[in-house]
Amino acid sequence: MDTSSVQYILRPKDIKKAASLFELSEEEIAKFNSLKLLNTQYIRLCLMRADYERLTNGLHYLEKSDTRYRYPEVMKAIAKEYGTNAKAVSRAIHEGDNAMYFCQKCGCRIKKEQYIRGGGLCSNCLADLIDL
Ligand SMILES: [Zn+2]
Asked: What is the pLDDT of residues 64-109, one digit of tens each?
């Protein structure tokens, strides 16, 4: 899989989910998506949370009877779906929006310390500013 484009573009599946989550039409999101106007990293975080909610509410119910999957499997499934690791999924789910910082130039997600240190830029964009 070409991960360089995955970072900036939502898959048709993601667009469908995002449309229902944000109550927008799929056409609108698809258009913005093709123009690369979306913060796909942020959208993916929202989708991960929505998937987690949906799946764990199901678990609540399932726990009363027989269940084949639990919390660790849900985290793994979401991580696989979005091409990340379970730790990142856990972070996405448990951190509030307030804890999210994005590079002002490329839009990638960065840590608060990096945001402050780089004046709103990620390490990559900061490196672009160095004259050689
Ligand atoms: Zn950047």
From this structure: 444 677 788 888 999 999 998 988 888 888 776 666 788 888 888 8
- Measured in Å, residue 122 CA sits from the centre of ligand 1 at 4
Q: How far is the CA of 55 from the centre of ligand 1 (A)?
A: 33
C-alpha 85 to ligand 1 mean position (Å): 21
CA of 104 to the centre of ligand 1 (A): 7
Q: What angle do CA 2, 83, 11 make, to 5 degrees?
A: 65
Question: What is the token pair recorded at 20?
Answer: 């229902």
